[in-house]
Specification:
- The chain has 212 residues and is an alpha+beta fold.
- The chain is built from ten helices and eight strands.
- The strands form two sheets. Strands 6-5-4-7-8 form a five-stranded mixed sheet. A three-stranded antiparallel sheet has the order 1-3-2.
- The radius of gyration is 19 Å and the shape is globular.
- The termini are far apart.
């Protein structure tokens, strides 16, 4: 691990997490939980397999990531964040907030994975009727569906599909990103091709009140 060689908290932190790809590995483990090596490689398009192995080793040595052998039927190593690694959630959250404006113009050929919307969704969405029964919204965009759920007054997002979702939203990543971030009102997103089936009130319940 390279070091800045500076007795400074910021420099010491960057010694551990400042290398290219490192924080994106943390992003994957925050958004998806424990992951197999192949899951991480799929969620990090463009990374060389030997570089991923090196970064994971460095994060293990720093106490940010732990490795455990999973029993059958998985029967492979699982990587997860340690408690120390989980503390990076605040760092990733602020990077997500700061980076959202750069997504306005759309992917423009960039790779995309639907689970990359997990963290932005949890930051931007709010349960505006926590006293009412919980709702589930399925978002279909990119390579896989995403579930947005109200839980005890908060909003949680994760990969997955639901047979009984209150609402199902389908659209391009660009339009869905605008909707979930509050940069597009629902009516404007529909005008741009978003499709919403089911209870629209369930969707409006969690969306930002107006475009940012």
């Amino acid at each position: 691990m390279r070091s800045y060689g500076q007795y400074c908290a910021a420099a010491k932190a960057l010694d551990v997490i400042g290398d290219r790809w490192t924080l994106l590995i943390v992003r994957e483990l925050l958004a998806r939980g424990a992951c197999r090596y192949t899951d991480l490689r799929d969620g990090l398009p463009g990374i060389a397999t030997n570089l991923l192995a090196d970064r994971l080793r460095q994060l293990e040595e720093a106490g940010v990531v732990s490795r455990e052998e999973a029993p059958p039927p998985i029967a492979t190593a699982l990587f997860r964040l340690t408690l120390r690694g989980e503390e990076l959630r605040a760092v990733i959250d602020e990077l997500v907030r700061w980076g959202i404006p750069f997504m306005v113009d759309g992917p423009n050929g960039d790779a995309f994975r639907a689970h990359w919307f997990v963290l932005p969704a949890e930051l931007a969405l709010t349960d505006r009727a926590p006293q009412r029964p919980p709702v589930t919204i399925e978002v279909r965009t990119g390579d896989a569906p995403l579930l947005i759920e109200t839980v005890d007054g908060s909003v949680r997002a994760r990969q997955g599909a639901a047979e009984d979702a209150d609402a199902v939203v389908t659209g391009t990543p660009h339009v869905v990103a605008g909707l979930l971030s509050g940069r597009l009102a629902l009516d404007d997103a529909v005008a741009l091709g978003l499709d919403c089936e089911g209870d629209v009130r369930a969707l409006r319940r969690v969306l930002p009140r107006s475009p940012a």
